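Memo to structure team: turn this sequence into structure tokens by end of day. - J.P.
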Amino acid sequence: MFEPRLALASLSGESDAEWAEAGAEWSGAAFLGGICLDEPSRRAAKEMVDTRDREEFLPDDPFDFIDAQLEALSDVRIRPGFNVRSTTPEPIARAAEVCAARDAIIEINAHCRQDELRAVGCGETLLADTDRLVTFVRTAAETDAMVSVKVRAEVPGVDLPATATRVAAAGADLIHVDAMDTESVIADIDAVVGNSLFVIANNGVRNRETAFEYLRFGADAVSVGRPSDRPTVLAAVRSAVETWVREQPA
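Reply from structure team:
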């Protein structure tokens, strides 16, 4: 999927091509974005910018933006992905086509919990509406893009292992899990998906100890979010994942 098994996790309004290139020395993949694709999600993002001083990518044309950002990484040794939000599947398909043409991963955001995004049916709301999430995944997978789904643990009423099983059947290749304070959810997901999904564990990955905890639970890779611009953290985590892979039985 990617080596080393360390990914840079998207940070709204901050994770662009320049950010990914800066972390490429230590990372095997980088998820740019997130970016809102359709009018309802873009209105929600603008509201967050206007009322809460959040940073969001709000280009005139999000699809041109995705393509230009991926083009900027065409000669960088890193596997790019783009984290996207939408209220309907059609824009997901269009973004996935751009990603497929650039050999990039399309990552469907079922993770954001901001009230503005949830109000229009984006982000975390997809976890409570698995049928709609599955439609998004299937739509993206039909473009032949590699598909990731970013999810969050500890959402009331959501069975993440069951969700993982369904998105795998719909054509997802990866599941990117923000474990929150329930690191063991990685083991629960790994137990049901086996080799059908590449599992990336996220949240609190800072050093050898935190990386090893997720890898012991069955993660195939880990991702770093907030400290993704700190070379000392990235170097420590890269060393950890390479040591882990090297020490596994042949």
